[in-house]
Specification:
Length: 199
């Protein structure tokens, strides 16, 4: 039975790997740059306006946020990377926490999918490609989600698709064009989530 999306809540904001949930619910993680729109996408997926807090200052919060969806699934919001104004100490902490999610997560086998978010206006950045390389090398199941597609016209959309097709790390990945503003791609992304988690 599919989860009741209205029964969704923030389970915890973990600042240390030891704080990650110990239960065995399937996990779907969202990775991307600090300003790529992860929180907006999660709110759009759940039909909520402010369950996932949209920060006014990119890169301000360094936690792994676990959203409990009807006690059947966790949507996991990983800390945003690539924020230029973050101090070296903060960058080191982000790296350790994000790495800890993948390497010190007691239920890493419950991670069924990583949604790698890319801003459709810029295409994959060097940081995005580094993350995609890591996901490929570790064998983590992942797909590409292009955010903010409502801001592109047809020509710009074509240019973005060409940029994705031109990168070795992205050309063969499943790609979903998403807009948190219009909910474009919402049903398609939920289908992928349900398929990979078996819910």
């Amino acid at each position: 039975m599919k989860p009741n999306l209205n029964n969704a809540a923030l389970k915890m904001s973990a600042g240390l790997p030891k704080q990650f949930p110990a239960d065995r619910l399937p996990q779907v993680a969202f990775s991307g740059r600090s300003n790529v729109g992860k929180s907006s996408l999660i709110n759009s997926l759940l039909g909520r306006k402010s369950l996932a807090r949209v920060s006014g200052e990119p890169g301000k919060t360094i936690t792994v946020n676990f959203y409990d969806i009807d006690k059947k699934l966790y949507l996991v919001d990983l800390p945003g990377y690539g924020y230029a104004k973050r101090s070296p100490e903060e960058k080191k902490r982000w790296s350790a926490l994000t790495d800890g999610y993948f390497t010190k997560n007691p239920n890493i086998d419950s991670l069924k999918l990583v949604c790698q978010l890319v801003d459709s206006r810029t295409g994959p950045t060097a940081d995005d490609l580094d993350m995609l390389y890591y996901l490929r090398e570790t064998g983590m199941p992942h797909l590409l989600v292009a955010t903010k597609t409502d801001k592109l016209n047809a020509t710009e959309t074509g240019e973005f698709l060409a940029a994705v097709a031109g990168e070795a790390l992205t050309k063969d990945l499943p790609l979903i064009l998403y807009s948190a503003k219009t909910n474009r791609g919402r049903d398609e992304l939920w289908r992928k989530i349900f398929e990979t988690t078996g819910i």
